[in-house]
């Protein structure tokens, strides 16, 4: 039996953060962040703010060649620095077990796989001395020819069969036949430059050894994963390691896996027999902590005159590194979004001498939906159809790629309600006709989607005997409000006020939990907390510890996704080519909204990041040196407050019984997904000129006359 859903929404003009869930319990209420006061008063301590007695400081030394081998390291001048303690290189650092993630094989060999790879680390009494030492280390190389630029015809392109459990290339029906027979076709290529995570808190670690026990304070999205990785590297039992990630100042995917900083800090601490603190310099982060790989995306659509799709092909070219394989799965959304008679989706990549790409907020979906949704807009123009109507006409009954039933899918409701709220239906469809002085004005729309991911976790709930309760789960709060929402879940299941629940998160000594990534955190941890509190309430006293592995594995086989629609109005300056967003609306269907206050923040942050992807953010690989040119926030331009207009955000009340007991879908990433194409489509409507490369900077837009 399929679900029933209430798709009512707030009336126009109602602020989303003022709304509450229909239920009377703590879940659905706009509770304030539990850690808010600690953060604004400075008592919340981040990884680099733990300073054990006798703490030393480390500063890494990056390679200055794009490919080759270290032939000599001279630390004479560095060790003469006042306060110098040690310089670690591949010649004197402890040997580690080979890492499953090869980016962690630091100081283990003379090989240099890309520019910025760490070849040494300097350790000193002060951070100033460590930095001076690092600058004084002299490294000689045997340099080799390098290649850092991917092209559609690169001779090294290959097609992996599978990555992260996902089949990278799929076909349904006979695409070539359907495309050749289609009366209307689109064949367009869209490109996105490399992009970088720049969390406010850089990647940092403080490590100390107490006897044979390693304690690491790490800026990470999952301390359970970091502990497991360190145990394998240092040949320790997991019980010999404690990793603390209590407060994390953003990650956006770049802290989803352990990074070299925690390994280097642990190596250095063991080498000198003292605690060591290491924070990555921001200018080195682009080469060390991952990036969104560039994508060259060929999209082909075939359709009848009424707009119904007969053929859909989304083929992606991207790069990976020689260190490890990572695929930016940009073609995946095309398997979910729209009905078509036949489809083909695939990925090819070249292993280049570049830093290893990795997770960046909404990996795959953000660049992939940019191409797909811009292509749908181009097709709508070709067919003289309203872009909203074209999407409605291609709504599938089941997930096109798998044939599975959707647990819930309310994209059409998001499109219709968003159009009403935005004032879409009074829009003149002609491009380049709305003008205010030197400014051309236009509006655009795009759909958004993100998969629902739930991972097994454990949690415990304890009755303390005084009417209060203690909940423990190794969740990680990377700024999303996880502490608060999990406390709300616990309070509702225990039937007590929110302030009767104490919650501990952010340490690997707590019950094991999945990492904060893939918009899976709250659903995964919330399920475990929900189950533990229900069991405790049933028993009436004591402590309940639960694991959700069997529960997650027993889920019915539905296609689970969040959906949304983004509407944007932009202005383009005909003199300078500058594009600015005037207003945006995001309408989302993401299951039960557990806390409207923190949810609105997540949607707003995602849409702001999407605005940056559309207009300001890009990285450039220098073919001569192999380095990313935009290495800091002076060169890599994230949106400032002045770039962000008033953004209207709302959601549908969606009841999906096939998700998890909490009823929520992840919302951390879907906000970014539809924003870049909505802005790009609005720019076309404003100017009549189609730009197929992000970001939409003046040099790409050109002078419009």
Structure described in brief:
By secondary structure, the protein is an alpha+beta fold.
Task: Set out the fold topology.
Elements: H1 36-41, E1 56-62, E2 68-74, H2 76-79, E3 84-89, E4 111-112, E5 118-124, H3 127-136, E6 138-143, E7 162-163, E8 166-167, E9 170-172, H4 175-181, E10 184-192, E11 204-210, E12 213-218, H5 223-234, E13 241-244, H6 260-272, E14 276-279, H7 285-288, E15 295-303, E16 309-321, E17 342-352, H8 365-383, H9 387-393, H10 411-422, E18 435-436, E19 439-451, E20 458-463, E21 469-472, H11 482-494, E22 501-504, H12 521-539, E23 543-547, H13 549-553, E24 561-573, E25 579-589, H14 596-615, E26 647-651, H15 670-673, H16 675-687, E27 693-694, H17 698-701
Helix pairs in contact: 8-16, 11-12, 14-16
Describe what this molecule looks like in 3D.
This protein is of the alpha+beta class. Helix content is 24%, strand content 24%. The protein has a 7-stranded mixed sheet with strand order 3-5-1-14-11-12-13, with helices on both faces. Helix 8 runs parallel beside helix 16 (675-687). The longest helix has 20 residues, at 596-615. The protein is globular, with a radius of gyration of 26 Å. Mean pLDDT is 95; it is low at 1-18.
